[in-house]
Amino acid sequence: MKIPRDLQKTYDEISRLLIDYSAEYLNKEYEGLCLNALEKLCHKRPSPLKSGRSNTWAAGIVYAIGSNNFIFDKSQPIHMSAKELVAPFGVATSTASSKAAIIRKLLKIDYLHAEWCLPSEIAANPMLWMVSINGLYYDARMLSVEIQKTCYEKGLIPYIPEYKNQNT
């Protein structure tokens, strides 16, 4: 995705912070999600990145993506407290949390969108698989492949499980 010229310097600064942070504390999956969020923020009109410090935005992005992927839950492979998460950026937890709230709202980051979930966790996220058929909710993974195809074509599920399993 091409970055708008007026935000290229800001993008470069924040992306470097995100890449370095991910290399030290997270992993490539988190890095990809964080960079995706950064690119989308650059394309918002008006972009919120035009004001504020780069380290604050980087902390907000990591906080938004991390919280959406349960980074504060000790049962997760990668976990840390909010204070530990933001400390390397040199910002207060409340500041990062406030930026994260803005980012979540602007980008519609929530548990129901596979775009914001770690790719390795999509299959285990029950919220991504719930579909409503005639007012009743079903786990799409339990439905026939034909119904799954329809759900996938309508953008209701991230992939067709049977086909995904055949490719692995």
What does this structure look like?
The chain is mainly alpha-helical. It folds into two domains: 114 residues, Cyclin A, domain 1 (Orthogonal Bundle), CATH 1.10.472; 46 residues, no CATH class. The chain is 51% helix and 5% strand. It has seven helices and two strands. The protein has a two-stranded antiparallel sheet. β1 and β2 form a beta hairpin. α3 crosses α5. It is globular. The relative contact order is 0.10. The mean pLDDT is 94.
* Total separate domains: 2
SSE succession: HHHHHEEHH
- In whole angstroms, the N-to-C terminal distance is 28 Å
- Provide the CATH architecture of the largest domain: Orthogonal Bundle
Quaternary assembly: single chain
| Overall spatial form | globular
For this structure, the CATH topology of the largest domain is Cyclin A, domain 1
Query: How confident overall, as mean pLDDT?
Result: 94
Strand content: under 5%
Largest sheet: 2 strands, antiparallel
Category by helix and strand content: mainly alpha
How many distinct helices? Answer: 7
Q: Helices and strands in order, then pairings?
A:
Elements: H1 8-25, H2 28-43, H3 54-68, H4 82-86, H5 93-107, E1 130-133, E2 136-139, H6 145-153, H7 161-167
Antiparallel strand pairs: 1-2
Helix pairs in contact: 1-2, 1-3, 2-3, 3-5
